[in-house]
Amino acid sequence: MTFDLNEVLVIGVSSRALFDLEHENSIYQQQDVEAYRRYQYEHENTLLGKGTAFHLVKALLSLNKLSDERLVEVVVMSKNSPDTGLRILKSIQHYDLDITRSAFTGGDPLSPFLQAYSVDLLLTRHSDDAQVAIDTQDCAAALIYDPPESYQPDHDKIRIAFDADAVLFSDESEYIYKTEGLERFQQNESDKEDIALPDGPFAKLVRVLSRLNRKLGADRSPLRLSIVTARNGPAHLRVIKTLRAWDVNVDQAFFLGGMSKEPVLSALRPHIFFDDQPAHLIQASKHVPSSQVPYRSDSQIQSLSPITIDSKSSSEQAALGAAPVRESS
């Protein structure tokens, strides 16, 4: 019997996003593959700690208990070999995570296998895989930051928070803001208030999540979708009308008008927050699980921000909580 993953929400999560493998990754970076392999063998029965995406994955899998059919599937996608990946599988068993599918690529990139597993969202610590997914538009993809130290997830609701421009919507309006200023941005959004914003890299995902909510029923679904954006009036009207045109219902929207997002996110306590700008994510990631959505390589915004995470110094990478270029898992 063939199981069609196209009929469910599929989350692809790298082993380093799901579990805390930073010490192991440092061995791989600073020594060699053989040292990493030996360490994994020797610690095969040592439980891995929870990574940034752990709480989101566990919460989304719980939706399957509310339905007679599978609603969510999670695929662990790792650059480990099957041998060194055994520790990851044992940790999945220990935490009783309902994950049965995995892809161990033995060092090869994860991105070619996204379509094969019908992945809707890739959560990874490797910027190259996230970038390729965004460029090919195979699925939504984000680069996971380090886990917040004192985060406590909401156990009654599953909260997912999105930035607006360059995440749910294209970066077209953001480019106007960055190149022509706030006044021109506001005028553009007022002039186009009744024209739906173009799709961004997470547009398909939010549609899938909205359909999943409707399938469960508004009174039964614990899933809550939120927008946390620097937009304010009058630019917020176009956001609401665009979501209406998409037939997407979000539960909450916070139009901040340039205020810091950190206080709102701390109060909201989402299981994950998606944004395109490190300036917002550096502070947010101290309080809630956070991840960066890359711009497409052909985006006009790339010409304005030529410095990417991979080109930053190691100290800057540490400040961002971002993955280094080389990744073991």
Report on the architecture of this protein.
The protein has 329 residues and is an alpha/beta fold. Helices cover 35% and strands 16% of the residues. The chain is built from 13 helices and twelve strands. The strands form two sheets. Strands 5-4-1-6-7-12-11-8-9-10 form a ten-stranded mixed sheet. Helix 10 (236-246) links the parallel strand 9 and strand 10. The longest helix has 14 residues, at 203-216. It is globular and about 60 Å long. Residues 306-327 have low confidence and may be disordered.
Proportion of residues in β-strands: 15-25%
Q: Name the helix and strand elements from N-terminus to C-terminus, one letter apiece.
A: EHEHHEHEHEEHEEHHHEHEHEHEH
Structural class: alpha/beta
Helix share, percent: 25-40%
Low-confidence stretches: 306-327
Arithmetic mean of pLDDT: 87
Please count the helical segments: 13
Shape: globular
Describe the largest sheet: 10 strands, mixed
SSE topology sketch:
Elements: E1 9-14, H1 15-18, E2 19-20, H2 22-30, H3 33-42, E3 49-50, H4 54-61, E4 72-78, H5 86-94, E5 101-104, E6 121-124, H6 127-136, E7 140-144, E8 158-162, H7 172-180, H8 182-191, H9 203-216, E9 223-229, H10 236-246, E10 252-255, H11 262-268, E11 272-275, H12 278-284, E12 290-292, H13 314-320
Helix pairs in contact: 2-3, 7-8
List keywords for this structure.
12 strands; single chain; two-stranded antiparallel ribbon; alpha/beta; ten-stranded mixed beta sheet; disordered C terminus
Describe what is shown at a glance:
By secondary structure, the protein is an alpha/beta fold. It contains 13 helices and 12 strands.
